[in-house]
């Protein structure tokens, strides 16, 4: 077990493309660190550099107390779990598990012991004599993890191992990974594009974008205190709602105005977010999480201090336990490179739907007891203690300690 | 299959099958028939002599020398060609750093290795005649002479000539198999090499434990083709060697004997009998090779 430190690590491809841009990251001994970000953000590249499968263009990678920049993968004492499992198709499960140990000339008894222990831990005992082609996806994934476990390395590196599994299996494997980490306590670096996996698995999560590190924090902190628009829009599903707004101070206190609405901003917010008062009378970007809404009718007993928002539900997504209410607000969609990138990394076209026109489509998550239907008018309440504010030019969160010196 | 469908399929198959029967199968049958006659190409209706040709063949020393040479080539040519081609293909695809890329200059080598295949066999034979020359102009003998050694009679020494033939055959065949095996290695998912590299496999281990087993199907196919080619050797021997079969029958092969018997001695019946023997050798070899190397298909 060991800590992993990335110091000013760069990866530059031919043509000057910087896949990884000066990343500084410290992964503590025994920590489960998740690298998350959209496609092309450099997370897999960073992982492969730690593994030794890619050359490091600049900076240092330190595993334990050794600089490993020039060590080949087999000397770094790491084990990797691949997205496509990379099991040896011509060997049985047992031989797959034993391969790495045999290459290191371990005595047969020891190999046998480790293989059987890992097989028991992962429920693979009855599959030991089968070849990978005769296994299901989940079983193959477990064999891939078993292969990493028997090596007893200083660190596990996992490259989107759950991406190829179906949804239900993914959920149960997440739980298994958590249990495994509790039990073995090995430093793990886990790459994924799925922010739900990131939130549920990581001790800490590192959000990357275009090769730059955005924020490293515990999942809850990332959710509650995102450092910029990108992290705010990336973490949490459905994503945070944004709008261009103006902060005004009236007789009854401060409020934020947008699209004909006026939400009061509690005084505590100004203390929590130092620097927010400098935006009074100015424009900024307001962010509200869908989970900070509720149906006014349902929340009647608990809505003390929550502002009211009458809206018309355009679309409702009924998820069984809750309902996503999509409604239009009369303000053009926020055009900031951070929100566009976080929302949809696929198209180059407008992120807005053609039918929406010049309005923003917001999402509110309400209790399913609300029974709201499309086309209905509904009154929502907003928890104004959880408003997020961002600078319109830089996209940085106002009042976040990391942005204090900006 | 309903009747309409059956008729449709048969209709389409009729022409190709007919062509195959007329132009491929019929000549085989004809050759079998001619082998049972003493036809010298003169009479319109040759006399039937039964198995007389085969009896004579059995006692023909020169023919059996040729068979011996073919068998030697059959064993050694696939072995050497596949071995060298595998080695090169591995270096070009997985011999580089991390076990996942080729050595520096792979793209260049890949093209250059293929050049010998592009040359016509007769051209290669003439080329090597010059390469093997026993004087100062011979590419191989010039350095030997310069160093003070006796020049080696690559094509004139009965003990060496057959090995020279083997060398030329391997030289020409390797390029194609480098390309074939490269394609095979390229179809192995890169992850496997990376996983093996992380598990601790060095170059040789990567080759023997990962590449070789996963390439087995391709190697099998290559082996059979090369074996058949070894049994069919003709042009190199006929063009490159003295007396079309080496000094004193030291490089003759079955195909050369068939050609000589048929087109120099005009003994078509006897030559056909040789052809029949060659046919059975080839079929026997192919069947044996495929049976011995049969294994489960590997799925990725």
TrEMBL record, chain A:
GO MF term (any one): ATP binding
Naturally occurring in which organism (per UniProt): Streptosporangium pseudovulgare
Ranges of residues in domain ABC transporter: 4-235
Taxonomy of the source species: Bacteria, Bacillati, Actinomycetota, Actinomycetes, Streptosporangiales
Database matches in Gene3D superfamilies: 2.40.50.100, Nucleic acid-binding proteins (2.40.50.140), P-loop containing nucleotide triphosphate hydrolases (3.40.50.300)
Cited SMART domains: AAA (SM00382)
Source organism, top-level taxon: Bacteria
UniProt keywords, alphabetically: ATP-binding, Nucleotide-binding, Transport
CDD domains recorded: ABC_MalK_N
Protein name: Sugar ABC transporter ATP-binding protein
Presence of the UniProt keyword Iron-sulfur in the record: no
Pfam family, any one: OB_MalK
UniProtKB/TrEMBL annotation, chain B:
Membrane-related topology note: Multi-pass membrane protein
InterPro entries: ABC_transporter_permease (IPR051393), MetI-like (IPR000515), MetI-like_sf (IPR035906)
Presence of keyword Cytoplasm: no
Keywords annotated in UniProt: Cell membrane, Membrane, Transmembrane, Transmembrane helix, Transport
Transmembrane segments: 12-36, 71-96, 108-132, 160-180, 223-241, 268-290
Annotated ABC transmembrane type-1 domain residues: 67-289
Family under the similarity heading: Belongs to the binding-protein-dependent transport system permease family.
Protein name (record): Sugar ABC transporter permease
């Amino acid at each position: 077990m060991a800590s992993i430190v990335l110091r000013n690590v760069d990866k530059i491809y031919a043509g000057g493309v910087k896949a990884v841009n000066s990343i500084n990251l410290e992964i503590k001994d025994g920590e489960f660190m998740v690298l998350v970000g959209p496609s092309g953000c450099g997370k897999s590249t960073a992982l492969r550099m730690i593994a030794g499968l890619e050359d490091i263009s600049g900076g240092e990678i330190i595993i334990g107390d050794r600089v490993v920049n020039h060590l080949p993968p087999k000397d770094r004492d790491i084990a990797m779990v691949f997205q496509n499992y990379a099991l040896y198709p011509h060997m049985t499960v047992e031989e797959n598990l034993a391969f790495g140990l045999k290459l290191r000339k371990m005595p047969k008894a020891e190999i046998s012991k480790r293989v059987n222990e890992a097989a028991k831990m992962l429920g693979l005992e009855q599959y030991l004599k089968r070849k990978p082609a005769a296994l299901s996806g989940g079983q193959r994934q477990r064999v891939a993890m078993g292969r990493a476990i028997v090596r007893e390395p200083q660190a596990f590196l996992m490259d989107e191992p759950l991406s190829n599994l179906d949804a239900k299996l993914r959920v149960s494997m997440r739980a298994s990974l958590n249990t495994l980490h509790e039990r073995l306590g090995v430093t793990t670096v886990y790459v994924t594009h799925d922010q739900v996996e990131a939130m549920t698995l990581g001790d800490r999560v590192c959000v990357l974008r275009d090769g730059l590190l955005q924020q490293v924090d515990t999942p809850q902190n990332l959710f509650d205190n995102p450092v910029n628009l990108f992290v705010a829009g990336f973490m949490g599903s459905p994503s945070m709602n944004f709008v261009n707004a103006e902060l005004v101070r009236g007789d009854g206190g401060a409020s934020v105005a947008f699209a004909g609405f006026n939400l009061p901003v509690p005084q505590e917010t100004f203390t929590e977010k130092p620097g927010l008062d400098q935006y009074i009378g100015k424009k900024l970007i307001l962010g509200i999480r869908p989970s900070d809404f509720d149906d006014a009718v349902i929340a009647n007993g608990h809505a003390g201090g929550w502002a009211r928002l009458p809206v018309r539900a355009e679309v409702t997504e009924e998820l069984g336990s809750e309902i996503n209410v999509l409604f239009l607000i009369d303000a053009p969609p926020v055009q900031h490179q951070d929100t566009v990138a976080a929302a949809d990394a696929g198209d180059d076209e407008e992120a807005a739907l053609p039918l929406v026109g010049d309005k923003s489509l917001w999402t509110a998550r309400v209790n399913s007891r609300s029974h709201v239907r499309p086309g209905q008018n509904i009154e929502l309440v907003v928890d104004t203690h959880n408003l997020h504010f961002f600078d319109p030019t830089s996209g940085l969160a106002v009042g976040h300690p990391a942005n204090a010196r900006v | 299959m309903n009747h309409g469908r059956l008729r449709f399929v048969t209709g389409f198959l009729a022409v190709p099958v007919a062509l195959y029967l007329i132009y491929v199968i019929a000549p085989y049958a004809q050759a079998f028939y001619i082998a049972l006659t003493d036809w010298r190409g003169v009479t319109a209706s040759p006399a039937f002599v039964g198995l007389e040709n085969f009896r004579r063949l059995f006692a023909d020393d020169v023919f059996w020398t040729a068979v011996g040479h073919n068998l030697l080539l059959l064993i050694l040519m696939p072995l050497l060609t596949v071995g060298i081609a595998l080695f090169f293909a591995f270096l070009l695809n997985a011999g580089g750093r991390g076990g996942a890329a080729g050595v520096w200059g792979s793209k260049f080598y890949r093209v250059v290795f293929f050049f010998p295949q592009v040359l016509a066999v007769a051209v290669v034979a003439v080329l090597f005649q010059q390469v093997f020359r026993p004087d100062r102009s011979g590419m191989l003998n010039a350095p030997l002479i310069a160093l003070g050694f006796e020049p080696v009679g690559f094509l004139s020494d009965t003990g060496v000539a057959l090995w020279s033939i083997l060398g030329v055959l391997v030289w020409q065949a390797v390029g194609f198999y480098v390309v074939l095996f490269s394609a095979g290695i390229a179809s192995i998912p890169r992850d496997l090499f990376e996983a093996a590299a992380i598990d601790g496999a060095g170059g040789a281990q990567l080759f023997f434990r990962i590449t070789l087993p996963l390439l087995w199907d391709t190697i099998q196919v290559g082996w059979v083709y090369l074996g058949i080619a070894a049994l069919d050797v003709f042009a190199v021997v006929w063009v490159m060697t003295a007396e079309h079969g080496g000094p004193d029958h030291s490089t003759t092969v079955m195909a050369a004997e068939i050609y000589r018997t048929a087109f120099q001695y005009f003994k078509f019946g006897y030559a056909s009998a040789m052809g029949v023997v060659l046919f059975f050798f080839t079929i026997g070899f192919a069947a044996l090779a495929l049976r011995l190397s049969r294994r489960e298909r590997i799925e990725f």
